Amino acid sequence: MNSKLKSNLEVAGIYGVLLIMFIIIGYPLLWTIGLSLNPGTSLYGAKMFPENWSFTHYEWLFTNPRSNYVTWYKNTLIVAVCTSVLSTFTVALVAYAFSRYRFKGRTYGLYAFLMLQMFPVLMAMVALYILLNTVNLLDTLTGLIIIYVGTSIPMNAFLVKGYFDTIPNELDESAKLDGAGHFRIFFTIMLPLAKPILAVVALFNFMTPFMDFILPRIILRSPENFTLALGLFNFVNDQFANNFTRFAAGAILIAIPIATVFLLLQRYLVTGLTSGATKG
């Protein structure tokens, strides 16, 4: 087999895999979009490409008095923005400490981060429920934000720490000679140079509240405090509920803020993912 034929076969194989992945991803997405444009509310009579398509369900979500979709959307945005900002800042502080300082327990702390990544958050649900109930933060967005921020530290701190290790220590020493303190070095040198990895952390933590269902299900009880995942679940979970098309419309709208943040941070994401994972 000559090299040209082998190269063509490799390219054909790559495109074949990409085509299969596109079908796997695109088929459910097309069905969801088509389902949201069907005029009825039943799942069984819906079509992927409806003949009499309309935006009735999108209008219903925002204008019908029985719909709490706007409230759920607002709650999710509040949780997502707060979680993203607080998690990114907290993770950066923790990663900076483990990267630049030498203290007792540092090695064991890094091992603890690795071990905590082995256990899912689901194992701590009972403890988290009791803790939030003790401090009167159950059924509040504040309690949900605190849990998201806390659980984001182990994995993300280890990732950001690897990126900080690639930044030369000589920059810190030069800044100290000029009279800069630890916080000034952190804010004026480390954070600007670590924008790629911080963008990755910010995006991942922003996406979590939009997609997570189990944690809000356990913590939140009042419908006015629901996030989108929990609220949309009730569309199809309530007895005699037949709101699959409205559920699809609400699910499609979830992609708007995530796509917006992704586009804003796009130039940093590839660099951040590769550097944080391979260096340090």
Automatic annotation (TrEMBL):
Q: Principal localization?
A: membrane
Q: List, alphabetically, the GO terms of the cellular component aspect.
A: plasma membrane
Task: Output the superkingdom of the source species.
Answer: Bacteria
What keywords is this UniProt entry annotated with? Cell membrane, Membrane, Sugar transport, Transmembrane, Transmembrane helix, Transport
Tell me the SUPFAM superfamilies matching this sequence: MetI-like
Coiled coil residues, start to end? none
GO annotation, biological process = maltodextrin transmembrane transport
> What's a Gene Ontology MF term here?
ABC-type maltose transporter activity
The transmembrane segments are 12-33, 77-98, 110-132, 144-164, 185-207, 244-265
Kindly provide the name given to this protein in its UniProt entry.
Answer: Sugar ABC transporter permease
Organism whose genome encodes this protein: Alkalihalophilus sp. As8PL
